[in-house]
Hints:
Elements: H1 2-46, E1 53-57, H2 64-80, E2 84-88, H3 95-102, E3 110-115, H4 117-124, E4 136-152, H5 160-169, E5 174-178, H6 184-196, E6 200-204, H7 208-217, E7 222-226, H8 227-235, E8 239-244, E9 269-277, H9 282-296, H10 299-307, E10 311-312, H11 317-338
Parallel strand pairs: 1-2, 1-3, 5-6, 5-7
Antiparallel strand pairs: 3-9, 4-7, 4-8, 4-9, 4-10
Amino acid sequence: MNVQRVKVQCGLRSVTSAMFGARFGGLVGLVLALGSATAMAQSAAAGFPNKPVRLIIAFTAGSATDIVGRALAAKLSDAWGQQVLAENRPGAGGTIGSALVAKSAPDGYTLLINSSAHANNPSMYAKLPYDTLKDFIDVGSVSAAPNVLIVASNAGIKSVADFIAKAKASAGGLNFAHAGVGSGTHFNSEKFRLATSIDFTNVPYKGSPEVMSDLISGRVTSYFSPIAPALPLIRDNKVIAVGVSSQRRSGLLPEVPAVAETVPGFEFLLWFGIWAPAGTPMELVNRISGDMAKVLGNSEMKETLAKLGNEPLIMPPPQFAAFVRREIEDAAKIIKAAGIKPQ
């Protein structure tokens, strides 16, 4: 019996040893595999980029997103020693360009620049061709700027107070253009509507350049335009600027009052950010974000953005991700309060 008991115990030890060896071997393999993957990701980040990078711009050429995106692309090209190719893919409030990036390879070579529309669209559209939170990685913010309320020169409007009075006196309100459903310019107008209790008729376009043409001709009455594309028209007296959407006046338009001077507390800032497809290694995301921060902190880039009415907005991935989620929540509240039905 003692002999048999010893044999059984020896057998259990053999089985246990074999199982432990298998499990330990598997664990070692997993650790080695993870270490190898991490090393590969770090190597890819260190060598990035070794070919041109595509920067997909979610709005039309000449739009604020386009102007800021091309300025950033030029500086990153210099920093990386590789061309950053700015490519416009406009339409549907920025969702067409976003969908393209969401479906791209997660290797850092296809990036998206979008405006605050990226945070607005989950509530603006009943069905998106992507999941805003799951299909993208928030790489970093770029800049922020106020919009400027401009009106047609034949509208007979010289101030924010004039605009509000005329809107309240007009049956159905005034025509209010915007650069696409869900765009920052759309949300700016809706926030203004809520703050002033006026009514107006929304007229959607693909981007700022298309709006400007109709505003100059008087086909539409008003537009909360990004400052950069509006500046030449304001200076040439082709449109009239009546208010900027920041709490304080803009250095580019010091003679134009802030809307808040007439509507206390009113503020709307149009911001821009960069996204990568989900699955992009975080080592690579951090490398791109870090290089963006260096570029945005450069005095020459700050001057370029200032000429566009923008200020650098530098946030690393975790902070930017939290910011985007807060913006998504705020957009949903505006949509609900304004009674907007998802498209």
